[in-house]
Amino acid sequence: MPKANTTPLISFTNRGLYCSAGDFYIDPWRPVDKAVITHAHSDHAKNGNKQYLCHHFTKPLLEARLGNNHYQSIGWNEVVRINGVSISLHPAGHMIGSSQIRVSHQDEVWVVSGDYKTENDGISGAFEPIRCNTFITESTFGLPIYNWLPQHDMYTQIQQWVQNNKAKKTTSILFAYSLGKAQRLLQALAMFNEPIYLHGAIWNMQMALAATGIAFPQVERITPETLREKLKGAIVIAPPGAEGTSWMKKMEPYSTAVCSGWMQVRGNARRRNTDMGFALSDHADWKGLLAAITSTGAEKVFVTHGFQSALSRYLNEQGIWSAEVKTAYGNGEEENENANSATDAINTTITTQQ
What is the main EC category here (predicted)? Predict the structure, then answer.
């Protein structure tokens, strides 16, 4: 009697998540022949692959970051078949173009979520729960202490902070990751109906996003020629790497704010030596992670980058089979932005119920 095939549909290898039946990888961290990409952040989209499959909105971002390559792009819910394996992309809600990867073969369905958030931010596509046998989830903010305010409330706080700075003729500098967070801030600050000034790193990504056709407020790039007077009382968005550099001197007097989920933990704004911290994240909070996982109906859940041990343990306690997996993700954006600041959160007892 022939032996049953026990090879999992997706394996965890030293190159990344590998589907042997289809002979492709998902978000590989080493060069491969065929790569399916969840989104354009640098820890999930690496250079050196021969072929890339991604969402239409992700393609111009990969071109801007990785240069000329063999890119194939598809829309959400569109099915592509590779060696008999069906692949489709579904909104992850993490950033523009971010997708969950549904992989189906011989009645077995796996979903690789990449990074995701469950609140619809209005520009990234609403997270779509996908029924599956096995779900691979992130756990960047996988502790009960991480519980985001509704986006509208967070935007209102940011808008009020900027308005107060304007009353004092103080420049508002918001530090945010150049892909995802910066675009949400543009959305939040559109109400001021004035040009928003961008650091060059954010400007470059914003120009790539212009190819997607999504409307944004008017932006201007800060250059050496930008007059100091133009920046007085203005709104500026810059990447975290610009914080504390001489680049900021032209903006004086200014007030700074860090926009990151890590700001949820008390004292992080003070440790970052910033004037304000806004817990604005492009990742699901604790309740969002649990809601997303249970909505899949998955029999097995693999937990990757973040607080994977805590989340995996909690899921097992709730009767959902789970295991943690080490990956190379979380080394290029918010996950790694303030890793040392999580010490207080690690000590939080996992007692929150779904």
Answer: hydrolase
DSSP 76: B
pLDDT digits (tens, 9 = 90+) for 49-68: 999 999 999 999 999 999 99
Neighbours of 269 (CB within 10 A): 21
- The residue among 264, 353, 350 whose CA lies nearest residue 311 is 350
Encode 272-329 in three state secondary structure. Answer: CCCCEEECCCCCCCHHHHHHHHHHHCCCEEEEEEECHHHHHHHHHHCCCEEEECCCCC
Orientation of helix 200-209 relative to helix 59-66, angle to 10°: 140
Helix axes 151-167, 181-189, angle to 10 degrees: 60
Nearest Cα residue to 199 out of 217, 182, 218 = 182
- Whether residue 103 contacts residue 110, with contact meaning beta carbons closer than 8 Å, is answered with yes
Annotated domain spans of the chain: 11-146+283-346, 151-278
- Domain 11-146+283-346 classification at class level: alpha beta
Burial of residue 350 (CB within 10 Å: 0-12, 13-18, 19+) is middle
Residue 82: its H or E element: strand 79-82
Query: CA–CA separation, 261 vs 117, rounded Å?
Result: 12
CATH classification number, 151-278, choose in 3.40.1260.10, 3.30.565.10, 3.40.50.10890, 3.40.640.10: 3.40.50.10890
Secondary structure tally for the chain: helices H, strands E: 10, 19
**Is the pLDDT at 342 greater than 50, yes or no?**
no
**What does each C-alpha distance from 106 to 100, 177, 237, 305 come to in angstroms?**
20, 40, 48, 29
pLDDT computed for residue 352 by the predictor:
40
Rounded CA-CA distance 5/122 in Å is 43
Q: In whole numbers, what is the pLDDT of the chain averaged over residues?
A: 91
**What does the alpha-carbon distance between residue 320 and residue 206 come to, in Å, rounded to a whole number?**
41
Element (DSSP H or E) covering residue 186: helix 181-189
> 118: closest CA among 278, 279, 277, 295?
295
> Which residue, 72, 111, 70, is CA-closest to 92?
111
* Phi and psi angles of residue 86, each rounded to the nearest 5 degrees, phi first: -90, 130
